[in-house]
Design a protein that fits this description.
With 229 residues, this protein is an alpha/beta fold. It has helices at residues 17-28, 35-48, 59-64, 98-108, 111-124, 137-141, 155-168, 175-191, 213-228, and strands at residues 6-11, 31-34, 52-53, 56-57, 71-76, 81-86, 89-90, 130-134, 147-152, 204-207. It has a 5-stranded parallel β-sheet. The mean pLDDT is 93.
Amino acid sequence: MNKKITIAIDGFSSTGKSTIAKLIAKKYNYIYVDTGAMYRAVSLFAKQHNFVGNDFLDKEKLISNLNDISLSFKFNEDLGFAEMFLNNKNVEQEIRTLEVSQLVSKVATISEVRRKLVAEQQQMGAKGGIVMDGRDIGTVVFPNAELKLFMTASADKRATRRYKELLDKGDKVTFAEILFNVEERDRIDSTREDSPLIKADDAIEFDNSDMGINEQFDRICTLVDRKIS
């Protein structure tokens, strides 16, 4: 019988981590956890309560209200993946806006927020059979994960993907502001004091600037098969 392993996928924003993680989870019948959605949900909560904005962050107020935040994933059979719920409300669409994207890296720098979410993530994946993507999965959440991947791509390619995605949703955005958001998130994520975005020593790097999703999927499945056989 194939063993159930933990698959940690880290990397920069808009590198397709969630897309590939969902495909891998579906193929191997694993649980998929989008940790970015969790940080986005906390950011949405902070925005709704005026704890954060483009030019301010009331860190202490957010920290004092963390116990009022309940996060959960609920599987949507029609969509084929689990959606993010904040205090029992479906916020899957709200957390994917550019407005929230511009706030999430700022909120994610708060150590108390990271401790709360890391504890929840570790509990979700305690039994293995999980695919989790984020920024610190292979370095902090599951440092002993059997398979670690690190996704990267040029900022221009990532911004182009994100720009098309938002346009398809009907959002009125410019490429310039998307590129700025991508580069600013890279800077904040890579330089924050608590759990910065870095490649784990034993992670396998995938630069998918010019790599299609099918090629990535096939290569990663080969790696998974080696680990579980």
